[in-house]
# Entry
Amino acid sequence: MLRSMGQTAVWRQMIATARQLDAIAARHDATVLFEPFYRGFLASAKRLRLFLEEVQSLRLRALLDPANLIELNDLDEMFQQLGPWIDCLHAKDRKLHTDRGVAAGQGDLDYRQFVTLAARHAPHAPLVLEYVGPADYRQALAHLRGAMHDAGVVEIGPLPRGN
# Structure
């Protein structure tokens, strides 16, 4: 019982803090993105959706990094739960049952399904390669572009600076 009461108190405190963050974001005309991770407070797509629904803010949104959730959610569930709130996507990969992410194409994420769902549920959201460096960014980008090609998803490219 005490653990349940403690979790409820933490949830309420997080909601109150998010509402304060919303007010600060409004003063600065900013958007704040929450990125769920299976070992954190926002540990699943559903938990982040419930959090955002309760906060009721247009400025607090989701950054979906599927590699952070593949331990708990499949891709369909991630996009079903978070689709309306996704404003950015991370493209990295992860082997199941490990903590560390890896470059796109080096893990267990189905990139063809990922880009298909991203195009359907969050076509406006930028897709940012993550966990890449000089040695592997070309391979990761080629993997991402290959998945997009195979899925029939058209690459739009970066926006000009200032937009």
About this structure: The chain is about 45% helix and 15% strand.
